[in-house]
Structure formats: structure tokens, C-alpha cells
Amino acid sequence: MTFSTQIFPKRFAVWNFPPDSFGFRFVLFVWHFVFVFLAWQERVARGHSDAHHYWGLDFDIAGKDWFDFFSYGTDFVVWLNYPFIQLGLSFLGGFLLYGLLGYIAIWLFLKWTYHLLNQCSFKGKSFLFLFLFIWPNLHYWTAVLGKEPLIFWSLVQVFGVISFQKKYTSISFVMACLLLIIIRPHVAILVTGAFGVSFLLFGKATFFSKLKWSTFGLSIAVALGYMVLQLSHIRRLDWDRIVRFNRGSVLSFERSNSYVPMEDYSFFYKLFSFYFRPLPLEVNTLKGWIVGLENLLLLFLVLFFGYLIIRFWREIQKKAVPLWWSSALLFGLFSGCVYVFRYANFGIFMRTKLMYAPFMVVAIFWLGIKLFSSATRENQKA
Fold first, then answer.
1. Cα four-point dihedral sign 350, 308, 116, 155
2. C-alpha distances in angstroms, 94 versus 77, 82, 111, 120, 173?
């Protein structure tokens, strides 16, 4: 294949741009770094943000030693950045560094998705893949200087290994697990729980094998739970303290611009708000409308998933459920059930959505393409 045909295939379609091609990577790079510069300009204009703290701009980092930050949570991100800060890398340089990691994470995510959807033939998958390619919220939050690019890269590594049954001892997989555990142990609990429940319900293994891995997973969850209690300053397993901590977290958003009165909602409306709000009519800015349209598309996609379950229930029962597929859906469900008691702000809803929504969307896409491909083949035989 020549250089020109690699960039511009004769038939211009998204599926003719495999993720390993130069054209795909170049366009993705340009599109992603548009969001890197937008995210950087927003933080500079704001004057204070989490990114400023991660880059040591809102405190005297000169009086600190590198290993003063060697801990889990936010401090660990500062620890990662400390050498670059001491070398004199600018705030913009930090954004470019994290933006590059975010670009790699999205490229790996799209490569993973491409291989999954390529297992079946369905003409509409090009348009579905295009949506994932340009997804603004995904690009925006992986373009920031902060935890999000690190966490998304880690989640992509975990789902990639589980999906294609690669070696669990690979360096990237071990690094991904460590980053999840150190930076956001509560996310590590949610992921462990999702894969653990999926393995118990749908995994093809003997009873003793499931018992062994369940014991191992539960031990990890207990250790991670302890880390979360220490990081949140709840300190010990006390239900009243946990409830007060969560309520304080929710009330802390009251003075924010996009506050959502979650405490006044029923549990199901809390979930609806977390997953699908703000909708287009609830916002009046360009950025808000883009977010609203994304949420509307996600709502339609979940309704489409419900339609698939109802229409193809018998066919679904006959098929073996891949571990990554059920885990992606459970990860999204567990995230919603936990975060509705912690957050009350549209902005943080969108930031949190970065962790679970991409994998849920791919799971729904994959199921729909699989089912409609099977139905098309059966019709052609008939």
C-alpha cells in the first residue's frame, strides 16, 4: 500500500482507516490536541483548578521533597509530576505531556473497539465507530493535566487484557492495576467487583476455581476498602460516618454553578440525573449543548439496549456472554449506584462518565451488531 492510499483510501469510510494506519493516528492526534489546548486555556483563564495543584502552582513546592508526595490519591499525581516540575517544564508542557498520554489511551481504546466490532459484519458499524472517534467528552477529560488520562489509560489496559486474554503479567497491565489502586482505589474496587461478579455469574470455570478467585478478589477489595477509608478520612468502617461523609460531599457542591439537588431526588431519578443529565433543554451554552446532545445519545443508546434485550432475549440466552461485556455493564451500574451519593454537580457527572461510559457504549454497540448480524445471516439463508 502506498503512502497516498494509506491516508486517502479509494472508498472514504471510517472502517477503511484501521487504527494502526498513519491517517487514523494523525487525524486522531490533531483532533485530540484541539481539546488539549482548550482544556489548558480554560484552566489558565480560571486561575485555579486541580491541574494547578497537580503542577505545584497553588502551594510552595520548592520547600517540598519529592518523597513528601509519595502516597496514594492526589499526592501520588504530584509525585509523578515532581521531576518534570523541577526540570522547569511549563504548565502548558504538563498539559501536552498528559494530553499525549490521553491520546495514546484513546488510540488504544479505539484499537480495542475496532478489533471487537471487526468480528462481525454490519454496515452501520462505521458510523458507530465515528461517534467514538469524535466523542468530545472523552477527548476533553483525557486532555487535562490530572488523574483522568492516567485512569482511562489504566482501564483500557485492563479491559484489553481481559477481552483478548493476554498475559496478566505484562508490564502495562501490572502498571495499570497499580495506578488504579494508588490513584483511585475506589475505582479499583468498582472494577474488581464488576469483573468478580461477572466471573461468578458467567465465567466458565469449576466451583473450586471460582471459590479460589472469589477469595482472592474479596481480599483485594478489603485492602482497597481500607485505603478508601484512610484516604477519605473516615478512618474506620462506621456506617454513620460514611453517611455523614457522603452527605458532606454532596452539600459541598451547593455553591457550584451546575449544582444538582440530588438529596431531593428519588434513587431512580438520582441515577437518571447521573447518567443522562444535563439534557439539551437544561443548558444555554455551546459547551452545555454539546454535553446535552451526548447525554441524549447515551439515553437513546440505553433505550436501544432495552429494546435489544426484549426483542432478542431468547437468542441472548443461547449465547455465551464474554467476561469483558458483562463487566463493562456492571462497572457502569456499580459506578452510578455509588456516585449518586457522592456527587451533585453536572460537571463532575461528565468527568466521572469518562471512566465507565466508553466501555458501556462499546458493550451495547457490540451486542447490537452481533444480534443484527446474526439476524441478517438467518434472513439470507431463508
1. positive
2. 12, 11, 26, 40, 24
Angle at 164 (CA atoms; ends 163, 169), nearest 5 degrees: 100
More confident: 295 or 235: 295
Considering only CA atoms, which of 335, 351, 347 is closest in space to residue 259? 347
Q: How far apart are CA 337 and CA 69, in angstroms?
A: 31
Which DSSP state fits 16?
Answer: G
Q: What is the dihedral of CA 219, 224, 226, 228, to 10 degrees?
A: -160
What's the rounded Cα separation, in Å, for the pair 33 and 367?
Answer: 32
Neighbours of 157 (CB within 10 A): 23
Residue type, 196: G
Q: What is the pLDDT of residues 101-123, one digit of tens each?
A: 999 999 999 999 988 887 666 66
CA distance 246 to 228: 13
DSSP structure string for 286-324: HHHHHHHHHHHHHHHHHHHHHHHHHHTHHHHHHSPPPHH
User: What are residue 259's phi and psi, to 5 degrees?
Assistant: -65, 140
Cα separation, 80 vs 74, in Å, equals 10
> What pLDDT, in 10s, does the model give residues 121-178?
666 677 778 888 999 999 999 999 999 999 999 999 999 888 876 655 578 888 999 9
Spell out the domain ranges in the chain: 18-164
Q: Global pTM?
A: 0.89
Helix (H, G, I), strand (E, B) or coil at 47: coil
Question: Residue 308 and residue 306: Cα distance in Å, rounded?
Answer: 5
Total residues belonging to the chain:
382
Helix axes 22-46, 125-134, angle to 10 degrees: 40
What's the burial of 253, exposed, middle or buried (CB within 10 Å: 0-12/13-18/19+)?
A: buried
As a whole number of angstroms, the distance between CA 187 and CA 59 comes to 28
